[in-house]
Design brief:
This is Aldo/keto reductase. The chain is about 40% helix and about 15% strand. With about 350 residues, it is of the alpha/beta class. The chain has an 8-stranded parallel barrel with strand order 3-4-5-8-9-10-11-12, surrounded by 6 helices. A two-stranded antiparallel ribbon has the order 1-2.
């Protein structure tokens, strides 16, 4: 297949990547069972279509996600594999029962995490490496400095950040070149607009946006009667509970009307809105779509053909105003770990 996905530079110092990235988390964890064969086929279909950015975390399924990506890369044609870029998060501490117990950003931990990731992915370098959640006991300069050492040695190409606030972005950028900040951004989660996005733009740092479909909530495919398995993040996410869910799905129906007028799907409108820079137009935001089937991937890629003009943006803003979502984006205990929310 001839690649059709346009590319964007990730920040002034980062790599050139596909304008849409594939977030592989849901193929291993957090959204209920996934089909392994379909997951591999989805990664291959994405690479064939010209998606070059594959996002993962070493803690997604405790290594499962990296092993899956490694297998997909090994079984892809050489030319396709050589274009693929890996974006890896590390630092989350897990336990055998699936629990989470904080974050480790110490330099010796950074080196340890990276050694295992390189092995599981089967690559000789990671393209963008980032701490998933700031470690409150380790200054960001130390963690970023340790990744910079890995860049120096050729094990990592670029340094990224994840879910940190504007002050931390500045401190990190004063330590070493930062390619991008990975953070939640969608019609439902607009927290970056006030301070974080102006800061990354000032510093020439790109954004890789996750939760662009608010974890499926604003995909147009979610419904009140959808049953979630106990390990599914959405079964504890405030936005997916009772009245919050009812309210949020009403917002989706407003978006659906706009989508129908544009001849697009709700998911495509939501992705296209982020692709265009959201409420502050620009081309520095790369949405990571969490497709885990070829069907969902094809729908997501369709967002690249959706153009939103000023009237469309105004209609979307009126349908889903900032702060109109009911419920926080994470349960309270997890919100407390987000440097970006303080
Ligand atoms: N840095 C961080 O803190 C952080 C946190 C979370 C995620 N991430 C990264 O960001 C990536 C994307 O996040 P996300 O999975 O929450 O994003 P998302 O795209 O908002 O949600 C993905 C969910 O939406 C549903 N969906 C429905 N229609 C879809 C469509 N057309 N295309 C794609 N998905 C559709 C899928 O459900 P079904 O499969 O059930 O249809 C899937 O479970 C993750 O894979 C991960 O790599 C980073």
């Amino acid at each position: 297949m001839t690649p059709t996905v346009p590319t964007r530079k990730l920040g002034t110092t980062g790599p050139r990547v596909s304008a849409l990235g594939l977030g592989c988390m849901g193929m291993s964890a957090l959204y209920g069972a996934a089909d392994r064969t379909e997951s591999l086929a989805t990664i291959h279909a994405a690479l064939d279509a010209g998606v070059t950015l594959l996002d993962t975390g070493d803690f997604y399924g405790m290594g499962h996600n990296e092993l899956l990506i490694g297998e997909a890369l090994r079984s892809a044609p050489t030319a396709v594999r050589e274009n693929a870029l890996t974006s890896v998060k590390f630092g989350a501490l897990r336990d055998p029962d699936g629990g989470w117990s904080g974050s480790d950003g110490r330099p010796e931990a950074v080196r340890n995490f990276a050694a295992y990731s390189l092995q599981r992915l089967g690559v000789d370098h990671i393209d963008v490496y980032r701490l998933a959640r700031l470690d409150p006991d380790v200054p960001v300069e130390e963690t970023v400095g340790a990744i910079a050492d890995l860049v120096e040695k050729g094990h990592v190409r670029h340094i990224g950040l994840s879910e940190v606030g504007a002050d931390t972005v500045r401190r990190a950028a004063a330590t070493a070149p930062i390619s991008d900040l990975q953070i939640e951004y969608s019609l439902m989660s607009r927290g970056i607009e006030a301070e974080i996005l102006p800061t990354t733009r000032e510093l020439g740092i790109g954004i890789t946006a996750y939760g662009v479909l608010s974890r499926g909530l604003i995909s147009g495919h979610f419904s009140l009667d959808r049953e979630l398995s106990p390990g599914d993040f959405r079964s504890v996410s405030p936005r997916f509970q009772g009245d919050n869910l009812r309210h949020n799905l009403d917002l989706v129906e407003r978006l659906r009307k706009i989508a129908e007028q544009k001849g697009a799907t709700v998911a495509q409108i939501a992705i296209a809105w982020v692709l265009g820079g959201g409420a502050q137009p620009g081309d520095d935001i790369v949405p990571l779509v969490g497709a885990r089937t070829r069907e969902r991937l094809a729908e997501s890629l369709g967002a690249l053909d959706v153009t939103l003009d000023a009237a469309d943006l105004a209609a979307i803003e009126a349908a889903v105003p900032a702060d109109s979502a009911a419920g926080d984006r994470y349960p309270a205990a997890q919100m407390a770990h987000l440097d970006s929310e303080h």
